[in-house]
């Protein structure tokens, strides 16, 4: 065991947090999978648990492998991966199918394995690294808006346009996180305002086109509209998922019904993925709910510590770019479960079942651990003024 720990580098607290979340996820996933077994008729509860454990083990293998790679290699890797991601997104859109009448063109099948892969999650990870690279390379010189449009925002916009038709919530998260990263990285605030305006105009234009040609993207605009209407209108017909999630939360009490004793898991669709937090609250109560929130905020704290200690601009921006979206996604998932936000379809990182989410989260964590494991790295532009100081000065 001691020899094993000698090969594990980086922030030990992050390793421990990831392990705690992974182990904690076993019981909620096992319990919530009864919906897939007895309602949908898909496999067995043990089978779903074993699959989840295998995905987590492979995720830890990804973390271990990635954290051994010097973080500076991710900079050039993002440039090489960007055209690959664009091609994957185009392929994903072209072969998309309908699942339950809804557009499912966000998924592709991995040949010979039979596992679905959501290409947009890979695209988001590559984008964040690419933006971190651009900001780091231009930190010491004035940024020209026209030049940045071509070098940074054109690739970003192309990827987001390809993700948007099948997944609005993921596009919105990517866009928000990229703007935050740009602000922390010293990108001029007035230019960020320009980009925000362009983004909102592009979204409006997309909606108008989708309304004019509904057959091109079946059910997507209608789905977005119905979710917002159900959320904003308290007197309207409430979304079935939200209704069952609120019942689960309301009956959880202070300490919950106990592991595996959820009732709403039998009625709540996506109970093992998108709405697993509601099952956690029902089975573990307010205590379990707050504990999960605390662990994610602890992860955020360690991510910021790693970013602060990084010794190059790129390392700091890389940690922020791939780390904060993990916690942000967790907060969105929990906010949806308690009806603070409309339904988005975002999973709870490292707890929800789902291979793509686990793998890409682990890849991002591996990058963060690679930065925290680095010693005496040098770069042409050394981090003299840490981008996190911008946040400190703002506060």
Question: Could you give a quick summary of the protein structure above?
Answer:
By secondary structure, the protein is mainly alpha-helical.
Which descriptors would you attach to this protein?
395 residues; mainly alpha; two-stranded antiparallel sheet; two-stranded antiparallel ribbon; 3% strand
> Helix-strand pattern, N to C?
HHHHHEEEEHHHHHHHHHH
Residues in β-strands, percent: under 5%
Structural class: mainly alpha
Let me know the average pLDDT: 83
Number of E-state strands? 4
Provide the gyration radius in Å. 21 Å
Tell me the helix content. Answer: 55-70%
3D structure, described in words:
This protein has 395 residues and is mostly helical. The protein is 67% helix and 3% strand. It has 15 helices and 4 strands. It has helices at 2-6, 12-32, 34-39, 45-67, 73-94, 119-137, 145-163, 168-184, 189-212, 220-232, 240-250, 276-309, 313-337, 355-373, 388-394; strands at 98-99, 102-103, 107-109, 116-118. It has a two-stranded antiparallel sheet. The chain has a two-stranded antiparallel ribbon with strand order 3-4. Mean pLDDT is 83; it is low at 97-103 and 376-385.
List the helices and strands and how they pair.
Layout: H1 2-6, H2 12-32, H3 34-39, H4 45-67, H5 73-94, E1 98-99, E2 102-103, E3 107-109, E4 116-118, H6 119-137, H7 145-163, H8 168-184, H9 189-212, H10 220-232, H11 240-250, H12 276-309, H13 313-337, H14 355-373, H15 388-394
Antiparallel strand pairs: 1-2, 3-4
């Amino acid at each position: 065991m001691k020899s094993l720990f000698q090969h594990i580098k980086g922030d030990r607290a992050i390793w421990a947090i990831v392990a705690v979340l992974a182990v904690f996820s076993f019981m909620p996933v096992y319990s919530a999978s009864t919906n897939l077994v007895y309602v949908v008729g898909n496999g067995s509860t043990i089978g779903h648990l074993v699959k989840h454990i295998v995905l987590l083990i492979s995720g830890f293998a990804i973390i271990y492998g990635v954290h051994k790679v010097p973080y500076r290699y991710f900079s050039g890797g993002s440039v090489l991966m960007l055209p690959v991601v664009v091609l994957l997104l185009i392929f994903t859109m072209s072969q998309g199918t309908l699942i339950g009448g809804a557009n499912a063109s966000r998924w592709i099948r991995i040949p010979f394995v039979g596992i679905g892969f959501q290409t947009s999650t890979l695209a988001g990870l590559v984008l964040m690294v690419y933006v971190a690279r651009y900001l780091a390379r231009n930190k010491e010189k004035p940024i020209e808006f026209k030049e940045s449009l071509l070098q940074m925002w054109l690739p970003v916009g192309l990827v987001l346009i390809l993700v948007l038709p099948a997944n609005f919530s993921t596009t919105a998260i990517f866009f928000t996180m990229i703007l935050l990263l740009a602000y922390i990285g010293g990108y001029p605030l007035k230019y960020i305002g320009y980009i925000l305006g362009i983004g909102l105009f592009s979204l409006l234009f997309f909606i108008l086109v989708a309304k004019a040609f509904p057959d091109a993207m079946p059910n997507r605009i209608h789905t977005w509209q119905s979710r917002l209407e159900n959320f904003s209108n308290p007197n309207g017909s409430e979304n079935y998922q939200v209704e069952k999630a609120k019942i689960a939360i309301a009956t959880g009490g202070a300490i919950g019904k106990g592991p595996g004793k959820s009732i709403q898991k039998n009625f709540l669709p996506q109970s093992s993925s998108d709405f697993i937090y509601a099952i956690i609250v029902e089975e573990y109560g307010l205590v379990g709910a707050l504990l999960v929130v605390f662990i994610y905020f602890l992860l955020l704290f360690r991510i910021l510590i790693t970013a602060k200690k990084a010794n190059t601009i790129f390392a700091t921006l890389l940690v922020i770019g791939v780390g904060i979206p993990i916690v942000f996604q967790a907060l969105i998932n929990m906010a949806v479960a308690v009806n603070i936000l409309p339904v988005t379809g975002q999973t709870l990182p490292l707890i929800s079942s789902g291979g793509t989410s686990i793998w890409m989260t682990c890849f991002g964590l591996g990058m963060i651990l690679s930065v925290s494991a680095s010693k005496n790295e040098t770069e042409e532009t050394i981090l003299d003024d840490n981008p996190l100081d911008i946040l400190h000065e703002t506060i």
